[in-house]
Every structure is written in C-alpha cells, then in structure tokens.
Design goal:
2 domains, 9 helices, 5-stranded antiparallel β-sheet, elongated, single chain, 6-stranded mixed β-sheet, 351 residues, alpha/beta, Rossmann fold, 28% helix
Length: 351
C-alpha cells in the first residue's frame, strides 16, 4: 500500500517579487513536476499551491500530482499577479491548514518561498510557533523555508521551531531563482527517498547530499568498466592553479573541455549530467559506467546536487570538469582523458 503524502507550496507574490515572478513560477512548476516524477513507487502524492502577498490565496487545493500535466501547470500560474506586502505567517498557516486532514499515517510537507520578511499577517509569530511545535510532536510534518540571505530571518525561524537544515537562503536574482530550483528539486528527491525508507518526516530537508562509498563493494566495481587505458593521472602540487592551465602544462596539448576529472574533496554543487569515475587506491583501474553516480549516492535523474564528501574509505571519487577556470586543490589528483586530443595541435612548439 502506498504511503500518502500531502504537500503545500507557498509562493510569495508581494510587490518585491515583480521582476522574479515569471522565473519563480517556472521554478515552482518544475518542483511540481519533480513531485510528479517521484510519485508511485510507494508514494501517493497530492499537492496544494498557495500564493501570498497581503492576502493569501489557495490557487489549488490538494490534488493528485498525476493530474498536474505540463499544460495544467502552465495554466496554474498564468493569471497570478504580484503586488502587496508579505503575510508570511498567514501563508504558512494556510498551507498547513489546507493540507491537514489529521491522518497520522500521512506525511505532510509545507515548503515556503519568500524574498522578504513578515510584515502583514493577521496572526502572530507566537501563534504560528505553537502550531508548528504541536505538529512537530506528531512526527509526520516537515516544514521548510526559503528566505533571503542575511537579515536574521534564519535565527527567527529556528526560534519558532523550524530545523536549521530545513531552511535555505537564496539570492533575489534570476540566477538565484535558478539555484533555488536546483536545490529544492534535489531536496525533494532526498525527502521522497527518506519517506520510502520509512521516515515520516525530515528535519534536514535542505541538507546536502553526502557522497560516500559506504555501500560500495568490490563486486560492484567488477561490474563497471575499466577505462584506465584512456586516462593519465597527475598530482596537483600547488593550490589555485586552474584546470585548463594545469591540463595543458601536463599534456602539452590544447585543453578540451570535459577531458579532465577533478578529485572530489570539498563541499560543492555537482551537475546532474557530470560523469563520475572511481579509483580504488592501490588499483590501477579507473572505473566508469552508468551506475557510478548511484553507487556513490549522487542523483541519477539529471538533478544537480549540493554535495559534501563523506567516507570514501580506500576509494577516490572524480568528477568531470566542464570549466576552464576551476581552481584545483593541492595534493589531489586529476584524471585526463588523453583520447580526446584527436586533431588538436600541440600547445608548445616541438623541438
């Protein structure tokens, strides 16, 4: 029997969102599609959409996410206008009340997006805090906020009972909305995976993906392809050198975007289309294949992810670089695909 999940997306449409309205609604549509993709396979998801400025409006009451076709999603946001102040507390409460059907077997999630601070609600922060605390004790409610960077908003929400890892800060620019979309879609995947694994709620909705090899066994490596004949391995001896200059210095060929793989050693965003390779220390093989991302805990559906390196044990993880100015880290290794040099002239004149 599928686990029932009810989700409320609460979207700011106050005056300050005017220049970002279209991109934000596009991002919200992407999130609905992500929930649609995650439906089935043990989950039965319904979604409600709330928008808010001074007034709070329910654009869509809880609806089976399978009924949100691409066309229906476009129509959902077509006639929404911006203007007014920010009734953040009222909107959060409306999101809660709209999806709450008092079923302890259902998991509930309220995800709020705002570019400003509360300034117009009828209810107080104290009243909302009590409701949030009561719901948290039930164990099946996850409430997440997307707020402006800085300004003390995070500390206020934490005092109200919102987990620090359920709060994401974003920049109020077109690029900021793009990053918000990527981050939230990755979080949706983690949230739904947690529910499938038996969780009823999460207090780390926006926690980065932990990349590790805890579950990677030698038999898994044996099912992958050894591509070591295509690569050369180089050690980085100083900090800050960019990937293009380093690769050209070592290969004495013009740099080809995508030929170099850097060692994953620090928190960063890994693109959903980036190929990942594995080396087992003491082994000359370089392992590749369509299952590598899954084996190390990265999303496999094309979603970008903020990641933090976990326990790699005796393995090294490498990610394809599509940049020309990535700064390499001292004492790490890079892998260069020498088979991508065909037809390229030497960088330096031969003697």
């Amino acid at each position: 029997m599928s686990k029932k999940v009810r989700v409320a997306l609460c979207l700011d449409r106050s005056t300050s969102m005017l220049n970002l309205k279209d991109r934000m609604f596009q991002a919200a549509g992407s999130m609905i599609k992500k929930f649609r993709d995650e439906n089935d396979n043990g989950l039965d998801i319904s979604i409600a959409v709330i928008t808010f400025s001074t007034a709070v409006n329910v654009v869509s009451f809880p609806t089976d996410v399978r009924n949100f076709s691409d066309t229906a999603i476009s129509k959902l946001f077509a006639d929404i206008h911006v203007g007014g102040n920010t009734s953040l507390w009222d909107a959060t409460k409306r999101g809660i009340d709209t999806i709450n059907n008092d079923d302890d077997k259902t998991s509930y999630a309220v995800i709020v997006f705002t570019d400003g601070e509360e300034n117009a609600s009828m209810i107080s922060a104290t009243i909302l805090q009590k409701q949030i605390n009561d719901l948290e004790r039930l164990g099946n409610w996850s409430i997440a906020f997307n707020i402006p960077k800085g300004g003390g908003y995070r500390s206020q929400l934490v005092r109200m009972g919102i987990s620090n890892e359920n709060i994401n800060e974003w920049e109020q620019t077109q690029k900021g909305v793009e990053e918000l979309e990527v981050t939230t879609n990755a979080a949706i995947t983690q949230y739904t995976n947690s529910l499938r694994s038996g969780a009823r709620s999460v207090r780390n909705f926006y926690q980065p993906v932990v990349v590790n090899t805890d579950n990677l066994k030698d038999k898994d490596l044996n099912k992958l392809t050894d591509v070591s004949s295509d690569f050369k391995v180089y050690k980085v001896t100083k900090d800050g050198v960019n990937v293009k200059d380093f690769t050209e210095e070592k290969t004495r060929k013009l740099y080809v975007t995508g030929q170099t793989y850097y060692q994953l050693t620090k928190p960063e965003k890994v693109g959903g289309s980036k190929e990942v390779l594995i080396i087992k220390q003491g082994d000359s093989a370089i392992y590749a294949g369509p299952n590598v991302r899954k084996l190390v805990g990265l999303p496999t559906d094309g979603t970008d992810a903020k990641v933090i390196p976990g326990n790699f044990k005796d393995k090294l993880i490498f990610v394809a670089s599509t940049s020309v100015n990535r700064k390499l880290v001292k004492d790490t290794k890079i892998l260069v695909n020498t088979k991508m040099k065909k037809g390229l002239p030497d960088t330096w004149q031969k003697f």
